Amino acid sequence: MTANLLDFDLEELAVFCERLGEKRFRATQLFRWIHQKGASQFDEMSDLAKSLREKLETSACIQALGVVSQHISADGTIKWLFDVGNGDVVEAVFIPETDRGTLCISSQAGCAVGCRFCSTGHQGFSRNLTAGEIIAQLWFAEHFLRRHLGVSDRVISNVVMMGMGEPLQNYAALVQSLRVMLSDHAYGLSRRRVTVSTSGVVPMIDRLGQDCPVALAVSLHAPNDALRDNLVPLNRKYPIAELLQACKRYLAFAPRDFITFEYCMLDGVNDSPQHAVELVKLVRQDVGAGAWCKFNLIPFNPFPASGLVRSSQSAVMAFARILSDSGIVTTIRKTRGDDIDAACGQLAGDVKDRTDVHNRMSRQRNVILKPTFKIVPIKHEDGVNE
Ligand code: SAH
Ligand code: SF4
Questions:
Q1: Strand-strand pairing, 215-219 and 194-198
Q2: Nearest CA to ligand 1 atom 7
Q3: Cα atoms in the 13 Å half-sphere on the side-chain side of 41
Q4: Minimum-distance ligand to the CA of 122?
Q5: How would you class 38 by CB atoms within 10 Å of its CB: exposed for 0-12, middle for 13-18, buried for 19 or more?
Q6: Portions of the chain given CATH number 1.10.150.530
Q7: Which ligand does the CA of 306 lie closest to?
Q8: Model-level pTM?
């Protein structure tokens, strides 16, 4: 069987080279050709012996994902839909900012968690992506962007696992792909600039801390179990108190000294001042998380089947103020790429329904929320936000 070299981390590639009767160090060369130079053909790899290239031709491939579509937003955000076979598509989104380039990638086709406010959740679970399919999104985006921008330096500085799927329910492939992202011979990303976002798979948070600690974002969305059970069904298995304890344990291994809690703002559901006060009490009193948590309020991106509505700007501001005034570092996520449905939760599931992407592209853009009061800035060792 032909091996897809995007599936391998450096150690596995070394083993593969040994099986071909080659020295292990060849793997480093090969790894660099693939991930640093974006080679997709073995005959491009000019410093590899012809005999090795011939062996590779017959036993291996670099299997990219088919690009179904690419949309470039007015704000520079780029969204790609990739074909992963059997009618499944997954999404990756590039978000350029002045001081960094962030790629948001998918870990699964669909998702089994079924959060009420998430279009991927509504779509249901199709399958786990392989490590190669996760890395292929970064491989494609990085090398596409270099060509597109005419640069040879790295374009993507940050990766967030916030596309389709629950990364901690595809654990082995996730960790494998993280190792490639972090490898100095591949993308060389800092652990602090790779973020795994999870709806709260408690045992896997502990394992990630052991196996491959990177920045962690936890999708909280509610200040109590009754409400969270309803919004994030996984909460019935791993309730908030257990989740916060797992976060606290993770801090001992985390590359950052805080954990980000994401909170999707839903009109009339979880966005009242009382909810904010309850949230402050929760994070402060229950595990003393006030000192190590940061909140990121995400304005809900509506989709028809959800029956939910985005919180008003004033509700988001009032909520943020309550958290902020009680000393909790709080930011409001800017809506990016909204004209191309690249915002959170507006994922490739839509395409399965054959929604007309061009109609959606002409939709009115969101107002970017600008706080009218001071929100405590986040301290970053390297001056980089998430
Ligand atoms: N499964 C993981 C990662 C993918 S979802 C998780 O849930 O964390 C990435 C983020 O997008 C999560 O915080 C999720 O709650 C948020 N999200 C999902 N649907 C959304 C929507 N319609 N509007 C705003 N944020 C949404
Ligand atoms: Fe899955 Fe995350 Fe969407 Fe929930 S928010 S359904 S965990 S992708």
A1: parallel
A2: 199
A3: 3
A4: 2
A5: middle
A6: 3-61
A7: 1
A8: 0.90
Q: Helix or strand or coil: residue 84? A: coil
Q: In 88-240, which ranges are E strands?
A: 89-97, 100-104, 108-110, 125-128, 158-161, 194-198, 215-219
User: Going by CA atoms, what residue is nearest to atom 2 of ligand 2?
Assistant: 166
Query: Which atom belonging to ligand 1 lies closest to the Cα atom of 118?
Result: 19
CB of 300 sitting under 6 A from ligand 1: yes
DSSP annotation of 122: H
Q: Where, residue-wise, is CATH 3.20.20.70 in the chain?
A: 66-362
Q: Is 344 in the pocket of ligand 1 (CB under 6 A)?
A: yes
| Among 65, 8, 7, CA closest to 26 | 8
Question: If you measure from the C-alpha of residue 312 to the centroid of ligand 2, how many angstroms do you get, rounded to a whole number?
Answer: 23
Q: What is the pLDDT of residue 346?
A: 54
Q: Are 170 and 133 in contact (CB under 8 A)?
A: no
Tens digit of pLDDT for each residue in 71-112? 998 888 999 999 999 999 999 999 999 999 999 999 999 999
CATH class of 66-362: alpha beta
Q: Any residues with Cβ below 6 Å from ligand 2, and which?
A: 111, 113-115, 118, 120-121, 165-166, 199, 219
Judge contact between 157 and 100, C-beta under 8 A. Answer: yes
User: Annotated catalytic sites, by residue?
Assistant: 91, 344
Residue 377 has pLDDT above 50, yes or no: no
Give the integer Cα–Cα distance in Å for 42 and 61: 8
pLDDT confidence of residue 382: 39
Q: Is the CB of 197 under 6 A from ligand 1?
A: yes
Structure tokens at 169: 């329910």
- Collapsed DSSP state (helix, strand, coil) of residue 48: coil
Q: Residue 197 class from Cβ within 10 Å (0-12 exposed, 13-18 middle, 19+ buried)?
A: buried
- Residue in 162, 198, 333 to alter for ligand 1 test, most ligand atoms within 8 A of Cβ: 162
Residues across the chain: 386
Task: Please give the CATH architecture assigned to the domain spanning 3-61.
Answer: Orthogonal Bundle (1.10)
Ligand 2 atom at minimum distance from 119 CA: 3
Of the listed ligands, the closest to the CA of 125 is 2
